[in-house]
Amino acid sequence: DLQEAIKLFKHLVEVNPEDVKSLSSLALVYIDHGDNEMGYKYLKEALQVDPTSRSALYNIALILNTMGRYSEVLSHLETLRKCVMYSLAPSLTLEGSSLGG
């Protein structure tokens, strides 16, 4: 039930307003039920807590695309790309490898 899910996730957010997973989950409940504006609001809050949250960046890009806000989509996808590249950076460095000399 939509109202129960919203009530549960809102409670979790009230208890811990910096819980990115709860903020994102609340956003997705709203989005799944057609309330893109509220979904966007909570994804934006999640990104204020953790600007590098890959799931929040991906989901906000999807919802902005649905809303026709394409320039913002590109901005979030670029941030997501940088986060992914940064997380892969240690495995991409040549230092200490046979290639790095």
- Helical coverage, percent range: over 70%
- The number of helical elements comes to 5
Structural class: mainly alpha
Mean pLDDT, to the nearest integer, reads 89
Number of strands: 0
- Report on the biggest sheet: none
Oligomer: single chain
Report the principal-axis shape: globular
Order of helices and strands: HHHHH
* Unreliable residue stretches: 97-101
Radius of gyration over C-alpha positions, nearest whole angstrom: 17 Å
**Strand content range:** under 5%
Measured between the Cα atoms of the first and last residue, the distance is 60 Å
Descriptive overview:
Helix content is 76%, strand content 0%. It is built from 5 helices and no strands. α2 packs antiparallel against α3. The longest helix has 23 residues. The protein is globular and about 40 Å long. The C terminus is likely disordered.
List the helices and strands and how they pair.
Layout: H1 2-15, H2 20-32, H3 36-49, H4 54-66, H5 70-92
Short description:
76% of the residues lie in helices and 0% in strands. It has helices at residues 2-15, 20-32, 36-49, 54-66, 70-92.
Supply the key terms.
about 100 residues; mainly alpha; globular
